[in-house]
């Protein structure tokens, strides 16, 4: 079964790029097509935060306070019933481990959206765009819904977006950076969602990854490391399927496609 067959069997259009880290070898399916980032954008946010900490621009122990006005609903502090405070570094952990949108908003406030964009430009990711924090994305959904318009949040030409190839380039930058990059990968290793990329690999293979999910959109990017030390950057994005957020068959297809791509690289 080809990579395209895996996506077709799940009823989605798939976009994939996988590269052997430390090597120019790669595998792809429509790797240069624009794709919606959704919560995958939090990886770039966390990297810029870690870089600012390393440069002495931010104190990782500084605290932020999540109030009712900050809570968007969802996982982590975004869905809490009561106000809570935590450190900036714990905000980064929450944003990557449980995809906490409120923690990401508060971190964006300190890091700066413009600085995240500057990081992407510095890395040469010219096709990667960030419209703002999760709260900004939510505002576009509310406004478009009220106006009866197609949602900008689902259109890669009008929302935070990238390409699979540029996302594996971001992962490669993290992997080759023993300081801030390694910290971000450690936070990604704490992700609690194991149903996409991680599900495609045996237990002895470690996966540091971040999901992104919106109606009809399911993504994940990550670094896959084998016991022999070889590592691979993988980015898988899908469009289609029912708009319900729970589609385990598509989740499995993401993991299966990632495993098939890495198997090709290893062969």
Automatic annotation (TrEMBL):
It holds the Pfam family Beta-lactamase2. Residues 17-238 form the Beta-lactamase class A catalytic domain. Gene3D superfamilies: DD-peptidase/beta-lactamase superfamily (3.40.710.10). Coiled coil: none annotated. Signal peptide: none annotated. GO terms for biological process: beta-lactam antibiotic catabolic process; response to antibiotic. One of its GO terms (molecular function) is beta-lactamase activity. It comes from the Bacteria. PANTHER family: BETA-LACTAMASE, BETA-LACTAMASE-TYPE TRANSPEPTIDASE FOLD CONTAINING PROTEIN. This is Beta-lactamase class A-like and penicillin binding proteins (PBPs) superfamily. It comes from Amycolatopsis camponoti.
């Amino acid at each position: 079964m080809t990579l395209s067959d895996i996506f077709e069997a799940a009823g989605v259009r798939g976009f994939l790029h996988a590269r052997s880290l430390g090597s120019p070898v790669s595998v792809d399916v429509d790797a240069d097509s624009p794709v919606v980032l959704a919560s995958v954008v939090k990886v770039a946010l966390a990297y810029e935060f870690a870089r600012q900490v390393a440069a002495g621009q931010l104190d990782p122990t500084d605290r932020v306070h999540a109030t009712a006005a900050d809570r968007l609903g969802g996982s982590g502090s975004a869905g809490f019933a009561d106000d809570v405070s935590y450190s900036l570094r714990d905000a980064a952990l929450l944003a990557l481990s449980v995809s906490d949108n409120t923690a990401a908003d508060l971190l964006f406030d300190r890091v700066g959206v413009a600085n995240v964009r500057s990081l992407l430009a510095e890395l040469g990711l010219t096709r990667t765009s960030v419209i703002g924090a999760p709260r900004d994305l939510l505002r576009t959904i509310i406004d478009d819904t009220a106006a009866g318009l197609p949602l900008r949040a689902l259109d890669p030409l009008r929302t935070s977006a990238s390409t699979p190839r540029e996302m594996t380039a971001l992962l490669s930058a993290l992997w080759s950076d023993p300081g801030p990059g390694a910290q971000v990968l450690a936070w990604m290793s704490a992700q609690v969602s194991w149903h996409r990329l991680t599900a495609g690999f045996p237990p002895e293979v470690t996966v540091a990854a971040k999901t992104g999910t919106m109606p009809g959109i399911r993504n994940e990017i990550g670094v896959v490391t084998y016991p022999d030390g070889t590592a691979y950057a993988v980015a898988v994005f899908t469009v289609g399927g029912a708009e319900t957020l729970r589609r385990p068959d598509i989740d499995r297809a993401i993991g299966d496609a990632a495993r098939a791509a890495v198997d090709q690289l290893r062969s």
